[in-house]
Specification:
Distance between the termini: 31 Å
Structural class: alpha+beta
Mean pLDDT: 97
Largest sheet: 4 strands, antiparallel
Order of helices and strands: HHEHHEHEHHE
CATH topology: NADH Oxidase
Radius of gyration: 17 Å
Number of domains: 1
Strand content: 5-15%
Number of helices: 7
CATH superfamily: NADH Oxidase
CATH architecture: 3-Layer(aba) Sandwich
Bound molecules: flavin mononucleotide
Low-confidence stretches: none
Strand order of the largest sheet: 1-2-4-3
């Protein structure tokens, strides 16, 4: 695959097989994230890699409970509203049952915290595509990154007191024929370019 085709064919996967991700592949995805650029070469992105199904279930339940308690103001971000409504209905699993969730955290008082995590997440998504793995950016733990119960659960997993979550990655084999992610590029109707 040439580089541009590889970038264009990265798509979000939202249905996963239970098949575990091989350690070798997982290590490569994490390395891709760790080698992302960071503001001032800060390198404070913290990768918390969760593979334990019980831990994933617990986080999913805590997130569902937190969303279910939220009010829905009219100007609420559309995706957040969907999470809230799905949680109120019950059975909401924010990581789509992916066998791996890589949480990216960073220093809460660092100005580039979210963008550094975003660079790491994009690197990991591209690496996953190169390894025939599906992946999807997961924002839910960021929306809940001041929720005391979620924070307490993440602290047990290694989040430090001065860190917060700025994004996560669901990772695994796509639940599709052949296990390969859907690689059909989404047409671009936005993202204008101005040449000068
Ligand atoms: C900042 C950001 C946050 C996102 N959050 C979520 C999310 O919480 N859940 C989800 O299913 N997809 C999430 N996505 C994936 C987008 O919905 C997806 O990239 C977009 O619809 C384009 O589809 P594609 O990734 O297949 O090209 C997020 C993407 C970005 C860049």
């Amino acid at each position: 695959m040439d580089y541009l085709e590889w970038i264009k064919s990265r798509r979000s996967t939202r249905k996963y097989q239970t098949r575990p991700v091989e350690d070798e592949k997982l290590t490569q995805v994490i390395e891709a994230g760790r080698y992302a650029p960071s503001g001032g070469n800060n390198q404070t992105t913290h990768f918390i890699v969760i593979r334990n199904p019980e831990v994933l279930d617990r986080l999913a339940k805590l997130a569902e409970q937190a969303f279910a308690k939220m009010e829905e103001p009219p100007d609420m971000y559309r995706s957040l509203r969907s999470a809230v409504q799905a949680s109120k209905r019950g059975g909401y699993v924010f990581h789509y049952h992916a066998p791996v969730l890589i949480v990216t955290a960073n220093q809460k008082n660092y100005g580039n915290n979210m963008v550094d995590c975003a660079c790491a997440l994009e690197n990991m998504m591209l690496m996953a595509n190169g390894l025939d793995l599906g992946s999807c950016w997961i924002n839910q733990l960021r929306w809940l990154n001041e929720d005391p119960e979620i924070l307490a659960a993440l602290r047990v997993l290694g989040l430090t007191e001065d860190e917060r979550v700025y994004g996560s990655l669901a990772l695994g084999y796509a639940d599709r024929e052949g296990g390969l992610p859907d690689r059909r590029p989404l047409p671009r109707t936005g993202n204008p370019v101005t040449y000068v």
